[in-house]
């Protein structure tokens, strides 16, 4: 049995828009650039070491009220909720063949739970693995080993699709077939659909 293992961010979802970043910046009072606190604390949030409250407290550098926390969480959720229609078409095509689909995403647990409740794409996946629930983050080999154990197939029976080269390399080192999802990719062709 073969599996297709998809990442979420920048594969199933598109990048947050400038308006998303501007809204987060305005609400948090913090810059959203790569060296800012939003990204500095993200690995801990993705990996389940920080709760949503702890994450936003670290980002803001101060205590966060319940109302402000709800606002920041909602804006963060919205930023990562723009779906890639081409990937959705590929998911539907794979699903129609009877092949198995799984998801492996670096995503905080509370964000993952909110996304799963609010969107339709999870219906395609018979297995989902979120870093926040596992307390492991790609490209740590342990997260891929966990997936292998859960799916119960050799790594060569899994095609992993991710947008980050380091994640692809870590999976390939364990024997996964891999596809690097870059802007403009014809994913259906890459997967031989």
Automatic annotation (TrEMBL):
Gene Ontology molecular function terms on file: hydrolase activity
UniProt-listed Gene3D superfamilies: HAD superfamily/HAD-like (3.40.50.1000), Putative phosphatase, domain 2 (1.10.150.240)
Pfam families, A to Z: Hydrolase
Keywords, comma-separated and alphabetical: Hydrolase
InterPro entries in the record: HAD-like_sf, HAD-SF_hydro_IA, HAD_sf, PGP-like_dom2
CDD domains with a match to the protein in the record: HAD_sEH-N_like (cd02603)
Name the record gives this protein: Putative hydrolase of the HAD superfamily
Species the sequence originates in: Psychromicrobium silvestre
């Amino acid at each position: 049995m073969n599996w297709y293992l998809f990442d979420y961010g920048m594969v199933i979802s598109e990048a947050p828009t400038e308006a998303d970043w501007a809204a987060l910046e305005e609400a948090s009072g913090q810059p959203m650039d790569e060296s800012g606190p939003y990204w500095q604390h993200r690995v801990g949030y993705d990996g389940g070491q920080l709760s949503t409250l702890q994450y936003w407290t670290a980002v803001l550098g101060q205590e966060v009220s319940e109302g402000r926390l709800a606002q920041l969480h909602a804006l963060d959720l919205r930023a990562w909720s723009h779906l890639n229609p081409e990937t959705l078409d590929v998911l539907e095509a794979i699903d129609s063949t009877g092949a198995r689909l799984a998801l492996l995403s670096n995503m905080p647990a509370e964000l993952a739970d909110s996304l799963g409740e609010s969107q339709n794409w999870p219906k395609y996946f018979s297995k989902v693995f979120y870093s926040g629930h596992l307390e492991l983050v790609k490209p740590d080999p342990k997260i891929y080993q966990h997936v292998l154990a859960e799916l119960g197939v050799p790594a060569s029976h899994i095609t992993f699709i991710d947008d980050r080269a380091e994640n692809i390399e870590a999976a390939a080192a364990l024997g996964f077939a891999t596809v690097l999802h870059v802007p403009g990719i014809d994913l259906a062709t890459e997967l031989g659909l």
